[in-house]
Amino acid sequence: ITAFEQESPDGCLRLALELGEDGDKERHIEVDALISLTGFHPDKEMWSEIQVHMCYASDGPMKLASSLLAAKLAMEGDPAAAGDCLSQAAPGPQTLLNPEPDFYVLGMKSYGRNSTFLMRVGYEQVDLLMEQLKQDGSSH
Q1: Distances (CA, A) of 109 to 19, 54, 60, 79
Q2: DSSP per-residue codes, 118-135
Q3: Hey, how many other C-beta atoms are within 10 angstroms of the C-beta on 61?
Q4: For residues 1 and 38, what is the distance between their CA atoms, to the nearest angstrom?
Q5: Which of 45, 60, 75, 140 is 20 to 30 A from 24 in CA distance terms?
Q6: pLDDT for 57-116, tens place per residue?
Q7: Helix (H, G, I), strand (E, B) or coil at 13
């Protein structure tokens, strides 16, 4: 957003957006509301009294945060893949483990402040965990 007019004559909010790789295109739109979802972090109250190793930078569980950072750094050398969160897959079930036995953080909370979470990945996390729990149960 390069500019916005909050008090327009007709009561609409007018926004000017920069589009394109280098901001070479500008588009003006009228909207009823602008919702800014910046600075989000998950509510960790649920696990504040147990042993969950959290990443200080992302507010997500450490193993998953480390895996996501490694994947991001690996993609930076590939301009076609860099920034394409749609190409991601859920990391393996080992990234869901915490020091607290039998406690898992899945879905949006598992990504902490990381903005690349997709519902598809959350579903994959659940599938991975269920598969892991089945294997763990059959080995006892």
Answers
A1: 30, 11, 7, 28
A2: -HHHHHHHHHHHHHHHHH
A3: 27
A4: 14
A5: 75
A6: 889 999 999 998 888 888 777 655 555 667 777 788 899 999 999 999 999 999 998 888
A7: strand
